[in-house]
Amino acid sequence: MYSFKQKICIYFSIILLAISVGINIKDIFIDDDYTINYEYVNTKDMAQPRVAEKQVSEKNIFETILSSSDNLGAVEEVDMQLESVDLPVTQGAEAAETAPKQIWYLPTEVGRISQYPNYGHVAYDITSPRGTAEVIHPVANGVISGIYTDSAGALIVTVHHVINGVNYTSQYVHLSRYAEGIYTGKPVTINDALGYMGTTGYSTGVHLHLAVLDCALFDPADSKCSDLGAWYRYDKMRFSQGFYGLGYLMYVPGSWNSR
Ligand SMILES: [Zn+2]
After folding, report:
1. Domain segments of the chain: what residues?
2. What is the dihedral of CA 77, 83, 89, 94, to 10 degrees?
C-alpha cells in the first residue's frame, strides 16, 4: 500500500487539481467579453448579472478570507468636513449635464471583473491591463469622505454620494498611490482622479476592490456606517437582503473597455 508520505502527496495533488479546475470554471463564467454601452448604465430595472456566489473556488475562498479584513483596519486619516460642504442632491443633475443618461459610472477606463461580490467579500474586484497606471475615478459625483490605510496597509479612498436624496458611499481599496490634491471633504466629479490601481494591503495582485453601500460612511449621524465596523456589518446585512452595491445600481458587465 501507499506510505504516509505518498498519501500526503496524492491528497495534495488532488487539491491542486481541484483548485486549477475551479479557477478554469470561474474564468469560463466570468470572462465573457462585453463592451460597456453607456445606454446600459444606470438601469436599475435591467436584469442583474448572475452574482458569482456559485463560482466560489478554493482560490476565491482564500482571497475572500484575505480580503474580508479589508474593511476592519483602523482609520488613520479621517477628517470629516462633510457638514461644511454643500452636499449636492444636485449631483445627479450635475452628472446628467455631462451625460444625461448616466449617474453611476465605471471607475476605470479599462477593466475586467475578477471577483463578484459574495457574502465574505461584498465588493467587485476589477483588474486592468494597465496595472498601476490605471486611473481610478469616482463612480458618481460626490465628496471625498475618507482617505486612509487599513491595518494591512491598503491605500483607501471613500466618496460620499447623494443620489435622489439617498446617501451612498463608494470605497476604492488597494490603490498604489493617491491622486495629487485629494483631501477629505473635497467635492469630486466622475472626471476627477482618486488614485491609481494597485495591490497595497491584503491583495494577490494589482486590482481595484470596489464597494458601494447605501449609507454615509464616517458620518456620525448615520449609525448604519458611522465607522468601519458598522460599515462592515451593514454591508453584510445589505448583501443578505439582495443589495449588491454597484451591481444593484448599474449593469456591471464581465469586462469593459470604455468608461
Ligand atoms: Zn476585493
Report:
1. 31-256
2. -60
pLDDT digits (tens, 9 = 90+) for 200-228: 999 989 999 999 999 999 999 999 999 99
DSSP string, 52-70: GGGG--HHHHHHHHHHTTG
Rounded to the nearest angstrom, the distance between the alpha carbon of 121 and the centre of ligand 1 is: 6
pLDDT at 187 over 50: yes
User: Which helix or strand (DSSP H or E) is residue 12 part of?
Assistant: helix 4-30
**123 C-alpha to ligand 1 centroid (Å):** 6
Distance separating alpha carbons of residues 36 and 38, to the nearest angstrom = 6
Cβ-contact 101, 41 below 8 angstroms: yes
Please state, in angstroms and rounded to a whole number, the distance separating the CA atoms of residues 155 and 206.
12
- What spacing in Å lies between the alpha carbon of 127 and ligand 1's midpoint? 10
Within 10 Å of residue 221's Cβ, how many Cβ atoms?
9
Query: pLDDT band for position 257 (50/70/90)?
Result: low
CB 212 within 8 A of CB 245: yes
Helix then strand then coil, % of the chain, to nearest 5: 30, 20, 50
pLDDT, tens digit (0-9, with 9 covering 90-100), for 94-115:
433 333 335 888 899 888 888 9
CATH fit for domain 31-256, picks 2.70.70.10, 3.40.50.150, 2.60.120.10, 3.40.50.300? 2.70.70.10
Residue 129, classed as helix, strand or coil, is: coil
Separation of CA 51 and ligand 1 centre (Å): 14
Sign of the four-CA dihedral 147, 245, 94, 128: positive
